[in-house]
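Recap from last week: sequence in, structure out.
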Amino acid sequence: MLIMEVCQCIMAEFLRLDKYSIGVGDRFAHEAVAQLTACALAEKQGLKVIPVWNKSNREHVIIGSEPATTRQAADAAVAALGWRNAYFVDADHIGIATVDRFIPHADFFTIDVADWIGKSADNKAVGQFTKRHSELVGKIEIANIPEPFVTDQKAVETIAGKYMAAVQEAAGVYRHVAAKKGAAKFVTEISMDETDSGQRPPELLVILALIADEGIPIQTIAPKFSGRFNKGVDYCGDVAQLEKEFCDDLAVVAHAIRQYRLPDTLKLSVHSGSDKFSIYEPMRRGIRKFDAGLHLKTAGTTWLEEITGLAEAGGSGLDLAKEIYRQALEHVNELCVPYAAVIEIDRNLLPSAAEVAKWTSEQFVSALRHDPENPAFNPNLRQLLHVGYKIAAGMGATYLKALEEHREAVARNVTVNLYERHIAPLFVDVP
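Predicted structure tokens:
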């Protein structure tokens, strides 16, 4: 009882996250106003969707930027539009080695513990956990899941042993941030999605019990779902299976909130969620059924809309988009290796640089814009450009100047993409 009392005391202090939120990556910190405009459009429909500007340490290193620039861009956009709702800046996919540079500027911390999954845990601690949580052994009835989970002590010990080190690592990072920033000044997310095997709903329940024992006031959790969540393109997998898995996870989260007194704001976070058009309606049904919240990370979609806007503008904008593609094609191996787990590019279907050099604005935009009904859409080209932001970063002021010169076209594409293709299909008209 003492452990749980201490944990609940810790959980009493945390910055609350609203029901619906959307992670908006902004590689070059130039689209915050356009992104926030999409959230403002939702507000006009009576819907509050909270923007969370997310940027990882890897992205900062590649771009050559600092976390302060993400905060500055977000604050400036909020001031420009007179946004009166909450907003956050996310230290995305951080660990203990990378978190310190974000602490002064972020108020949302996505703690990535994927590398710790499966690391050996103390057998005594695993045994104590299983003894403490006898409710996890046997038949577990969970509301809105037709068949109960059936476990035994060995199964629970196996799951706890697999994830205990990861949760302990998350706890260490959380406490480090809380000590330096104050526990009531940030939102905590735990990410387990960048790993080879996903977490089934029974595993998620044990993970949440482990998190509760550590006293982490988690508000979003990002499990790895079945199927592939490739960058910038649609979901690849069994949609019906995904819907069942998603709904079962929603049920587990609701159960864990009650069982372990986790924050009532706890919700699922879907990473690489941009452009997953085929699963938006299933997810929409799920959050309606459970009256549940959702955090969707759209990450690099905004960068792709910048390129789309440049190409659509024509002239020097189109020329620059073509040059970025040419260099991306030339450095395809270097660009793709860090993202190998989340892209699938058939290089035989990538157009040559010489072919693209002859394209009109319409041809380039048709190949890049994610419109599955357009026969000219090329998901291979789109994925390559998704990971090709390093090319634009290398152009420095040339690229940033182009964004300003073609501001109208770029901003329009960013706003329309975020609102019409992401926010509206998922959230508009949900309770």
